[in-house]
Amino acid sequence: MVSASAEAKHAAVTHEQAFSSLANPVQQLTTVIPQLAPLSSPLLLVPNASSSPPPRPTSELCFGGPELYAVEPKGCNPFLANCTIFFAQQPLTFTTEKAKVAFTIN
């Protein structure tokens, strides 16, 4: 019968080997991830060399915006959905997440 001490030592060695085998890939990831950060947008479009870029809007229609949030739990999801639609309708106005958060809070 194997003693508890021997089992603990074997488990410690096994865990140490597992940690050692993960150290190199983790180190590689910590080097590569900062390099990929500029590419981590939710939608990365690579244009076809033969196609021209889509026309960019120069102005937007101004809509009234979503109804004010009444601080009721059941109204939170509809309010956020309406904000998302509002932001999509005005991409020039809401170009950053900061602008979207500021509008939503206000």
Descriptive labels:
single chain, 0% strand, elongated, mainly alpha, 56% helix, 106 residues
Q: How much beta, percentage-wise?
A: under 5%
What is the β-strand count? 0
Q: Estimate percent helicity.
A: 55-70%
Question: Can you tell me the residue ranges where pLDDT is under 50 for at least 5 consecutive residues?
Answer: none
Task: Give the ordered list of helices and strands.
Answer: HHH
Question: What structural category arises from helix and sheet content?
Answer: mainly alpha
What Rg do the Cα atoms give?
26 Å
Largest sheet: none
The dominant shape is: elongated
Mean pLDDT: 74
User: How many DSSP H or I helices?
Assistant: 3
Span between N and C termini?
A: 69 Å
